[in-house]
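Postdoc handover notes: sequence design on the structure in folder B. Input tokens:
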């Protein structure tokens, strides 16, 4: 943990190199003493610590406070957000994630982190060889009533703009009845860190898979849209479905390597999005976290 004093923005300007060095070395760092109370403060500090980027292809709704500064994903409170690396299914993704804690939940809502290098070492077994060698595929159906409408995910109401984005980002797309957009994209499951040169397990294979959903929600969505029409699902790179035991084992390995963040309102959590995955436990109460994405990388 790094202790901060004085004006949050002035402190961030003076300690940018220190924070970034600590994040590279440790995978994440908690900054205490900034006493952040508003999204605007979080955004101003984050802009001094990194180069903010706008989210595209988001899989859950967010409120936008400023370009690159958002609410945490709108996700059912009683559902966990399992371990993942933000936008690891996209061609352009943030190297840094910054989370400003404005208020804690009444119960639950803990943030946990896991070292992606250690997770990869634990996954080197026949069960995961295909992902390590060949990658993974994400398929999405942008239902307006379930998940994120394509207009929100791509930041436009122009279908031509969406199509151009998909072509330039290696995303296969098709328009179905009712202007429903369906996409699929394939990426490696392992990414080499651009600074440390270390291999990291970097994907959202488990989080966005049907077997990670709560059973009643999965059954409802399959009944409503069919398995082929789920808002999102992950498969092997060649499109083969992933068996439930594989997802169960992956989530168990994440949990084995999870470290809980003991933060307080006013804290800023800075995470190396490649070296470290993050998750959120179910919660009750008025939890408020502001998210900033920074330092975009392109595969």
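Designed sequence:
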């Amino acid at each position: 943990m790094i202790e901060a004093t004085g004006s949050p923005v002035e402190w961030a300007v003076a300690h940018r190199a220190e924070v970034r060095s600590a994040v590279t070395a440790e995978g994440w760092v908690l900054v205490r003493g900034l006493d952040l109370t508003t999204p605007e403060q979080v955004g101003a500090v984050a802009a001094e610590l990194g180069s903010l980027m706008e989210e595209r292809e988001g899989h859950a709704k967010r409120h936008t406070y400023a370009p690159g500064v958002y609410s945490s994903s709108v996700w059912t409170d009683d559902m966990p957000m399992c371990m993942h690396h933000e936008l690891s299914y996209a061609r352009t993704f943030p190297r840094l994630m910054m989370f400003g804690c404005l208020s804690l939940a009444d119960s639950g809502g803990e943030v946990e982190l896991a070292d992606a290098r250690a997770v990869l070492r634990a996954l080197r077994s026949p069960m995961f060889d295909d992902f390590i060698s060949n990658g993974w595929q994400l398929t999405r159906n942008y239902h307006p009533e379930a998940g994120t409408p394509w207009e929100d995910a791509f930041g436009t109401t122009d279908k031509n703009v969406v199509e151009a984005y998909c072509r330039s980002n290696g995303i296969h797309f098709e328009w179905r009845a009712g202007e429903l957009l369906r996409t699929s994209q394939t990426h490696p499951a392992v990414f080499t860190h651009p600074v440390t040169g270390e291999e990291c397990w970097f994907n959202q294979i488990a989080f966005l898979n049907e077997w990670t959903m709560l059973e009643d929600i999965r059954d409802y969505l399959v009944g409503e849209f069919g398995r082929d029409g789920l808002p999102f699902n992950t498969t092997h790179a060649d499109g083969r479905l992933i068996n439930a035991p594989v997802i169960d084992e992956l989530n168990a390995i994440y949990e084995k390597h999870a470290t809980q963040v003991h933060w307080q309102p006013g804290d800023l959590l800075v995470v190396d999005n490649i070296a470290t995955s993050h998750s959120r436990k179910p919660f009750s109460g008025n939890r408020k976290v502001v998210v900033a994405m920074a330092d975009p990388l392109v595969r």
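Context for whoever picks this up: The first helix runs from residue 8 to 26. Don't rerun without checking with the PI first.
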